[in-house]
Design a protein that fits this description.
By secondary structure, the chain is α/β, with parallel strands linked by helices. The strands form 3 sheets. The protein has a 7-stranded mixed beta sheet. α6 crosses α19. The longest helix has 21 residues. It folds into 3 domains: 223 residues, Glutamine Phosphoribosylpyrophosphate, subunit 1, domain 1, CATH 3.60.20.10; 333 residues, Rossmann fold (3-Layer(aba) Sandwich), CATH 3.40.50; 73 residues, no CATH class. 39% of the residues lie in helices and 15% in strands.
Length: 666
């Protein structure tokens, strides 16, 4: 993966873009591409690439052009079927100067136009400049693995892999967005095209924009999550479906291991998804297979027993990093600087530390298990929703709500520890089973409580339903899907790209110049999973049934049958027990007044409440879920302002020395 950026002058002719503006954008993206920097400049356009060399180390430098140099590309990502596409294009008469997947992309666009995007199997954000016509294509992969941010003003377009590259230009505004902040304090993340920054968009996953010379553009969605009314595979026996899924996962994993000119490692969380991926990875590449894990000093979060069990099963060269609360607090400002978004959980911080270990080990790419929960029905939220629906048919039943005791056994403060309160919580809105976001309403209702800390001018005044409908528009045919598919769609479009693949994924990996590769997000795997009937995914309260079926004989039974434990990390306690000095500084009334987003009095009361609980209960105090999220969300927003919006973005981030190529066309 790489970093890309650019500035395009539309409309009236202007002087060529100053080179130092493009160099500044490159400078702050070098952590994404430490191996090479390239800049293209003509009278309308400036393109920037910082390259992490994984495929075609010798000749794949960017910006890169087609044969007649009418098309120029900067590209962040990997095209895993590029060899097959290259053969097609050569048969159609195209000639190639490199062995890179980037050159395949530009020739595919030349041959097929925007329809080329439907032929790609990979993860990407790209910009292709048509120097002859003065037009620009921007595109992003289907599920949004690779980021792409945009700002348009005065008939000038800025784009970049990260917002900090946009902020190097004083013409780009630096201010928080009311709607973006309200999205974070509802959905846990912004929903594309929204961001937390006023005037800055992100390109929607699975979409492309073509800008004309005038600056006008058309946007086309070439992929979106979709579930057929009657699943195509509904009559396929589970074992047959599991075998077909296994074949697709084998191919997807093999492609992600062998389509690289550098070693590829694998993350092990101790759960089913990463264990299956690591096992298939070992089969594809049995020599010097390397695995990496996070373990925690807090037993509540630690899964090292299962991680080590899987590493022994694989016989891999295994390394792990032990993370304490103080480690999380120490790196949190840098985590937020890379995430470029407030977060309500500290879970990105250990992933930041883990990617540092991977890079230290000389590995540039890792396999991970993201996507399995979304496309195979693995989250507790899906099971929770089904219990609420089941209970709604007999709301006076005393037995049906007991099913909630099967959920969240890993939480120190389980919702079921106080049953009366828990039942009242689950009952809220239980009768509104007809609303599209029924599955997510309890989570969103809880998170929306955090908006009370915002100043009135940053608090959305929209009615709840209107706010949600505007942020999460539903596709045609949604009403014909099943209830599980409803929940899957909403989870994919709100949290997968906006948080898991960004704040917790790409941004933490690329902070240390490491690329993540995701077999469960392979185009063929996704297409197959979308056509599965719900009974192959969730049966009663047994999740990911099809994946567990194919895992037998592949990974240890103890891992297959263990209770589900989502990846989590110590949250607010990291900043309350022996807190670093910046915590008091960021949460001081003076700092809160300076940033102007939160009500200082409300935040001070929250901070004091949390500190009082720690004083009374000790280092292992139990904070409420709302207080946990509130403190982390407020602190991360404050840090975001101070690390990114006060000039902190202009300095490079631990940049390694790179060569720089400059291509000038007048």
């Amino acid at each position: 993966m790489c970093g890309i950026a650019g500035i395009i002058n539309f409309g009236d002719r202007r002087p060529p873009l100053p080179l130092d503006r493009l160099q500044s954008m490159a400078q702050v993206l070098r952590h994404r591409g430490p191996d090479d920097t390239g800049i293209y400049r003509d009278r309308m356009a400036g393109l920037v690439s910082t390259r992490l060399s994984i495929i075609d180390l010798a000749t794949g430098a960017q910006p890169l052009a087609n044969e007649d140099e009418s098309l120029w590309i900067v590209y962040n990502g990997e095209l895993f079927n590029y060899i097959e596409l290259k053969r097609e294009l050569e048969a159609a008469g195209h000639t190639f100067r490199t062995r890179s997947d980037t050159e395949v992309v530009v020739h595919a666009y030349e041959e097929y136009g925007i329809d080329c995007l439907t032929r790609f199997n990979g993860q990407w954000a790209l910009a292709i400049w048509n120097a002859k016509e003065g037009s620009l294509l921007l595109a992003r992969d289907p599920v949004g693995v690779c980021p792409l941010f945009l700002h348009m003003s005065n008939n000038r377009l800025w784009f970049a892999s990260e917002v900090k590259a946009l902020f190097t230009d004083s013409e780009v505004p630096q201010a928080f967005s009311t709607s973006g902040l309200n999205q974070v304090f509802t959905f846990w993340s912004t929903v594309a095209p929204g961001t937390v920054f006023e005037g800055i968009e992100q390109l929607r996953p699975g979409s492309a924009r073509i800008y004309e010379r005038s600056g006008a553009f058309i946007e086309k969605c070439f992929w979106a999550p979709s579930f057929p009314r009657e699943a195509t595979h509904s009559r396929m026996p589970l074992r047959d479906a599991a075998e077909q899924l296994r074949e697709r996962l084998v191919e997807a994993t093999t492609l992600r291991l062998t389509r690289a000119d550098v070693p590829v490692g694998s993350y092990l969380s101790g759960g089913l998804d990463s264990s299956v991926v690591a096992s298939l990875g070992l089969a594809a590449h049995p020599v010097d297979y390397r695995t990496y894990s996070v373990r925690f000093a807090d037993a509540e979060f630690d899964e090292s027993r299962y991680q080590r069990m899987m590493a022994r099963h694989l016989g891999s060269t295994h390394r792990e990093i032990s993370v304490t609360r103080s480690d999380i607090a120490r790196v949190f400002p840098e985590v937020i600087r890379h995430a470029e978004s407030p977060v309500l959980r500290t879970a990105p911080a250990p992933m930041y530390l883990l990617s540092g270990l991977v890079r230290e080990d000389g590995i540039k790419a890792v396999l991970t298990g993201e996507g399995a929960d979304e496309f195979l029905g693995g989250y507790d939220l899906f099971r929770e929703s089904e219990i609420r629906r089941f209970w709604s048919h007999a709301p006076q039943s005393a037995m049906r709500p007991l099913l909630f005791q099967r959920l969240y056994p890993y939480l120190a403060r389980s919702p079921q520890s106080a049953q009366a309160l828990a039942h009242n919580f689950w009952k809220q809105g239980m009768d509104r089973t007809d609303i599209a976001w029924y599955s997510h309403e309890p989570r969103w209702r809880t998170t929306m409580q955090l908006r009370r800390f915002l100043r009135p001018e940053f608090r959305s005044s929209e009615p709840e339903a209107e706010f949600i409908e505007r942020a999460v528009p539903l596709p045609e045919g949604f009403s014909r899907w099943g209830t599980l598919e409803h929940a899957q769609y909403i989870e994919i479009v709100t949290l997968l790209s906006g948080y898991l693949l960004s704040s917790q994924g790409d941004r933490m990996l690329m902070a240390h110049s490491v690329e993540g590769r995701f077999p469960f997000l392979d185009a063929g795997v996704i297409e197959f999973c979308q056509r599965l009937p719900s009974q192959h995914k969730l049966v009663g309260l047994r999740e990911k049934v099809i994946l567990k079926t194919l895992a037998h004989g592949v990974i240890p039974e103890e891992i297959i049958n263990r209770p589900k434990q989502p990846y989590r990390a110590p949250d607010a306690l990291s900043f309350l027990v022996d807190p670093p000095a910046y915590v008091a500084d960021m949460l001081s009334p003076e700092s809160l007044e300076s940033v102007g987003v939160f009500d200082p009095r409300s935040v001070t009361m929250l901070h004091e409440k949390c500190r009082r609980v720690v004083r009374d209960q000790g280092a292992n105090a139990l904070l409420s879920n709302t207080d946990n999220m509130g403190l982390v969300g407020i602190l991360s927003t404050q840090l975001l302002h101070h690390t990114l919006m006060k000039g902190g973005s202009v300095a490079p981030m631990q940049a390694r020395t790179t060569s720089e190529r400059l291509i000038e066309r007048t």
